[in-house]
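yo

u said u wanted the structure for the complex thing, so here. seqs first:
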Amino acid sequence: MPPEIMQVVLNGKTQTLDKPLTVAQLVDSLALEGKLAVEINQEIIPRGRYDETRINDGDCIEVVRAVGGG
Amino acid sequence: MNASAGSEDQPLVIDGRTYRSRLLVGTGKYRDMNETRRAIDASGAEIVTVAIRRTNIGQDKDQPSLLEILPPNEFTILPNTAGCYDADCAVRTCRLARELLDGHNLIKLEVLGDEKTLYPDIPETIKATEILVKDGFRIMVYTNDDPVMAKRFEELGCIAVMPLAAPIGSGLGIRNPYNIRTIVENAGVPILVDAGVGTASDAAIAMELGCDGVLMNTAIAGAKNPVLMASAMNKAIQAGREAYLAGRIPRKAYASASSPIEGII
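structre next:
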């Protein structure tokens, strides 16, 4: 596997990223609307740190939002 | 409340904020976002619960998000920890919710013990409460109708205690009114019945017992006409509150005539 190819687990599914990404780039690429929160390896990434936080090979990433619930 | 009795009532205060409505509603199980919003408007609720879930990657970009339909500047958003069966899951969910809602730290803590009953797992709920209180969260806790545990959660620092009326989504109504009344009598924080309400009279009974409010979802969203049921619940909560403040007559075994005895022809 070339070094720039990374495998991550995004919301429980294994995904291959073909280039290094920051959290900001990842969120942009997902084209999600509305408020989100991001956790990498069970650590919350504050919104203000999306630009500086890089995704690493093997990261377990959760992207969550608010949905209807009781 | 708009009747003359309203002037005698104190508003509901949750975490320092004042609310006119004593009905709190969930946002799950509605047909669509439009029905969600119309039902919540009819309910008069100012506090709405939401769940925190994974985004459906690539599938939801054209649908409005819940927080666009129910904006946080219009409603107090109460994220829940529904679906968590241990303290770690609940704590993680609360921290994600706080990040999602820009530092908002009011949460509904529920840690479930069993899929069949959805009864709370009390030891795990206590564990989560201790961690979350230290972490600065303001906790409204879902618990069973046990007066001892209700008091314990208050002592642990929960800002509201929410005993169940009956299992979540069951619609069985208040199964143990004597316990609910005892919980209310002992309480130094708001007590809200959470879960198990089936219809308007159940909500009124909770309020007549002296509860500070009621939180419900399925009773409204699962009704044939959710918007009409939301309106019914709005009125039932107000009627039950006024009846509680008015002070009901004692129950008697025998009749007591309403017309004068004297002057009968």
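The radius of gyration of chain A is 12 Å. Chain A touches chain B at residues 10-13, 30-39, 42, 44, 46-47, 62-70 (CB under 8 Å).
cya
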